[in-house]
Specification:
Length: 663
C-alpha cells in the first residue's frame, strides 16, 4: 500500500481498528507530555486509576503556564507535579524552564514516534516528523498507564509546498495564509501533511511554527517529512542519533491536496479576535500599536527571536510602544544572552519576560483598555489576553519588530523602503544549543533523580470528582444558548485569578461559562443542572478537560451543538456529558430557558448504539438530535465517564489497555 507519512507512523503504532478515515483507531503512545495547568488533573486521575508507574517510553511534566506563582496554590501545584513526576517516573521541567512544546522539541521530540499531550499545541514537533496529538488529561493518564489512545482516523491532506519564500515572508505567514483560506474549522478531522519541493527551504524551527498553529485550523495533527534539515537541527540540539528518514511512499494516496506557492506568500496578520481573521499586513497599516510581544510556543525559539533582534540592532522601540520578548524556553534566553542579542534588544528598549506562557493567557502584560497589542502568538480569542474587548493581532516576529520600530502596524517591506538601511534578517539556525539536554539540563529532573517522597498535596488540591453511570433520563432547562466557535477559554478561562483552581474542581466550577453569562454558574447550581445549546465548532481551542469537568460538576447532562471540536467532544464523553448534534434550523428554533428532555431511555440508547435521539421541547414539540460515537465512546459515556469505565474494566478484567497497579 502506498502510505502517507501519517499512515506509516499510525500503522507502526496501531493496536486496534483500521486506517480508514472516520473509523476509530487505537494507537500505542511512545511519549507523553503534560503541563502545569492540565497536569495536576492528569496525575490525580493517574492516582485515582490506581496506576503505579509510567508505562510509556517517556513522560515529561512541564511547568510553564503559571510560572510567576502569584499565589501559593500555583506553587503547591508545581510541588505536587514534581512529586508526582518523581513518584511515577516522569521527567520534570522546573517552572521557568520554558513552554512545554518548545522544551519538548529541544529535548525529547523524535521523528517517527507518537506523542500525546494534554495541551492543544502538542502537534508542534510534527515539524520534525513526530506524530503528535493533543488530548484531554484523562486520555493522557490512561496512555501513561499503558492504555492505547483512541482517535478517529483522520483524513490525510497533502499540503504541497512549492517555490521559496520571498523577502520578508516567513513560516508564520504561511500558516496565517492557510488559516485565512481554510478557517478555524478547516482542519477538523484531518492531519495536514506537508510535502513538495518547498519543504527543504524551511528549517525545523520554521516547520514547527507551522505545525504548532495547525491547531488553530482544528487539525488533529500536522507533520513534515524528515530530511537533511531535520538531521541538521537534531545535530544542533545534540540528538542526531535520533534521526529517522520519513517520507511518503511513492504515489501515496492523500484525501485531498492543497498547493501553496511559497513565492506568493507575503507578510500577513490576523486581526482581532480569531486566528483566521487574516489579511495582508498592508490592509491594517497605520494602526497605532501600544504593545508588541515576541515569543510563545509558536515563535519563541531562539531562531524566531533572532530576526526581531537583528531588526532592532542599533534602533529604538518607538516611545509610545512597549515591546516584550517572551522566549519559549530558557535555552532560547540563554542562547540570546550568550550571543549578545539580549543586550542589543535591551539597548533598543525591549524588556524580557521569563520563559513562560504567561501573557498568552492573560497572565502578565495584560493590554491596557482600548489598546492594540501585536503578538507573535497563536490565539487572539476575545478576552484571552486578560481584558475583555481586547484588540490582539497575530503576526510574525518580523512584522512585530517593524511595528515596534514604527509605533504602528507597517508592512516590513514598506518600512525597509522608508528607512533605507533595514534588511530582511532572513533565517539563521542557532548553533549554541547546550549538548546532552534532557540528561544534563539543570532545569530538568530525570525520573531516577526524584527528590520527593510520595505525592505532596497542598490544601487547594481536591479529589477528582467521579460521576455515576448515566441513567434513563437526561435533559433539563437550556441554561445557555451560545453562538458559533465558543472556545474552551469561554467555558473555563485561563486567566491568573482562575488558573490557580485547576486542581480544585468545586471552586473552579464557580467560573464556568461566566465569560458568556456571569449568572450561569449560579443558575446552574440553583437548577441542579440542565443542558447547553451551541452553534458550530463548540469547544474549539484548548484541550483543558476542565471545560467538561466543571459543567459535569454543575450537573450539565447534555450539550446540543451544531458541531463539536475534536478534543472537547472526547472530553465530554470522558466526563459523562451527552454530546448531541443538531441541525441549523433546530438550533434556530431553541430558545434559552426552553425545557429540553431526551425522550428515549438515554442509558440504554447510548449503549445500544442508537444514533438518533428524540428530544421534547417544553413538553409540546419534538426534534431529533444525532449522536456520532464509537462503541467505546458509548461504553465510556454510559459508565458516567472514563474514570468509572476504566475502573469497571479493571474490576471486570476488561480490556481498557491501562494497567492499574495491583491492589
Ligand atoms: C492554551 O493555549 O489555550 C492552553 C492554555 O495552553 C491550553 C491548555 C490549558 O488550558 O491548560 C491548551 O492549548 O490546551
Ligand atoms: Fe502556552 Fe500560549 Fe502555547 Fe498555550 S498557546 S501552550 S498558553 S504559549
Amino acid at each position: 500500500m502506498n502510505q502517507t507519512i501519517t499512515e506509516q507512523i499510525l500503522d507502526d503504532h496501531l493496536v486496534d481498528g483500521e486506517l480508514e478515515p472516520g473509523e476509530e483507531i487505537g494507537i500505542d503512545v511512545d511519549q507523553v507530555l503534560t503541563q502545569d495547568t492540565t497536569g495536576t488533573m492528569v496525575w490525580l486521575q493517574f492516582e485515582a486509576l490506581d496506576m503505579d508507574e509510567v508505562q510509556t517510553e517517556l513522560a515529561a511534566q512541564y511547568c510553564d503556564h503559571q510560572t510567576y506563582q502569584f499565589d501559593f496554590k500555583n506553587t503547591d501545584d508545581h510541588r505536587f507535579l514534581r512529586s508526582a513526576a518523581g513518584t511515577y517516573g516522569a521527567f520534570f521541567s522546573r517552572p521557568g524552564n520554558g513552554i512545554c512544546h518548545q522544551v519538548h522539541k529541544e529535548n525529547f521530540a523524535a521523528p517517527g514516534k507518537t506523542l500525546l499531550g494534554s495541551d492543544s499545541h502538542t502537534p508542534t514537533p510534527g515539524g520534525l516528523g513526530e506524530l503528535a496529538i493533543g488530548a484531554g488529561g484523562l486520555d493522557i493518564a490512561v496512555a501513561m498507564g499503558g492504555g492505547a489512545y483512541y482517535v478517529e482516523m483522520p483524513e490525510v491532506v497533502n499540503v504541497r509546498l512549492e517555490g521559496e519564500l520571498p523577502s520578508w515572508a516567513t513560516a508564520k505567514d504561511i500558516i496565517l495564509q492557510l488559516l485565512g483560506d481554510l478557517s478555524v474549522k478547516g482542519g477538523v478531522g484531518k492531519v495536514l501533511e506537508y510535502t513538495g519541493p518547498g519543504v527543504e527551504t524551511l528549517s525545523v524551527p520554521e516547520r514547527t511554527t507551522i505545525t504548532n498553529m495547525g491547531t488553530e485550523l482544528g487539525a488533529t495533527s500536522s507533520i513534515f517529512p524528515t530530511d537533511d534539515r531535520t538531521r541538521e537541527w537534531l545535530s544542533e540540539v545534540g540528538r542526531e542519533d535520533e534521526f529517522v528518514a520519513l517520507s511518503p511512499d511513492e504515489g501515496a494516496d492523500y484525501h485531498d491536496e492543497i498547493v501553496v506557492d511559497l513565492s506568493d506568500i507575503e507578510p500577513m496578520i490576523a486581526k482581532p479576535s480569531m486566528p483566521d481573521n487574516v489579511v495582508p499586513v498592508g490592509e491594517v497599516a497605520g494602526t497605532e500599536v501600544d504593545q508588541v510581544m515576541v515569543g510563545s510556543c509558536t515563535n519563541g525559539a531562539y531562531e524566531d527571536i533572532l530576526p526581531a533582534a537583528k531588526m532592532l540592532e542599533g534602533r529604538r522601540v518607538k516611545r509610545q510602544t512597549e515591546m516584550i520578548v517572551a522566549p519559549g524556553s530558557k535555552q532560547a534566553s540563554e542562547m540570546l544572552a550568550r550571543e549578545g542579542w539580549t543586550a542589543e534588544l535591551m539597548a533598543a528598549g525591549v524588556n524580557f519576560s521569563e520563559a513562560t506562557c504567561g501573557a498568552c493567557i492573560g497572565i502578565g502584560h495584560v493590554p491596557a483598555s482600548d489598546s492594540v497589542s501585536l503578538r507573535t502568538f497563536n490565539r487572539n480569542f476575545e478576552g484571552r489576553s486578560g481584558i475583555e474587548d481586547d484588540s490582539v493581532y497575530l503576526c510574525s516576529p518580523e512584522v512585530a519588530a517593524a511595528a515596534a520600530i514604527a509605533g504602528e502596524i507597517v508592512d516590513p517591506r514598506d518600512l525597509a523602503t522608508e528607512l533605507g538601511d533595514l534588511e530582511d534578517p532572513g533565517f539563521e539556525l542557532g548553533d549554541s544549543y547546550s549538548d546532552g539536554m534532557g540528561q544534563e539540563d539543570p532545569d530538568i529532573i530525570n525520573p531516577d533523580q526524584s527528590i520527593d517522597d510520595g505525592l505532596i498535596k497542598g490544601p487547594n488540591i481536591a479529589d477528582v470528582p467521579i460521576r455515576d453511570a448515566i441513567g434513563s433520563e437526561a435533559g433539563g432547562e437550556a441554561l445557555l444558548r451560545m453562538g458559533d466557535n465558543i472556545t474552551t477559554d469561554h467555558i473555563i478561562p485561563a486567566t491568573s485569578d482562575i488558573l490557580m483552581y485547576r486542581s480544585n474542581v468545586p471552586k473552579l466550577s464557580e467560573y464556568t461559562l461566566s465569560r458568556v453569562d456571569e449568572t450561569f454558574p449560579e443558575r446552574a447550581q440553583e437548577a441542579s443542572g440542565g443542558v447547553l445549546v451551541a452553534g458550530e465548532n463548540y469547544g474549539q481551542g484548548s484541550s483543558r478537560e476542565h471545560a467538561a469537568l466543571c459543567p459535569m460538576y454543575l450537573g450539565i447532562q447534555a450539550v446540543f451543538a451544531q458541531s463539536f471540536a475534536r478534543i472537547h467532544k472526547a472530553n465530554l464523553f470522558n466526563f459523562g456529558i451527552v454530546p448531541l448534534t443538531i441541525d441549523a434550523d433546530i438550533y434556530d428554533s431553541i430558545q434559552q430557558g426552553d425545557d429540553l428532555r431526551i425522550v428515549d431511555d438515554v442509558g440504554k440508547a447510548v449503549e445500544n448504539g442508537q444514533e438518533e435521539f428524540t428530544v421534547r421541547v417544553n413538553g409540546n414539540r419534538e426534534f431529533t438530535a444525532q449522536m456520532d460515537a464509537s462503541e467505546r465512546e458509548r461504553e465510556i459515556l454510559a459508565a458516567g465517564g472514563k474514570l468509572s469505565w476504566v475502573k469497571q474494566q479493571h474490576d471486570g478484567d476488561g480490556a481498557s489497555g491501562a494497567t492499574p497497579a495491583d491492589d
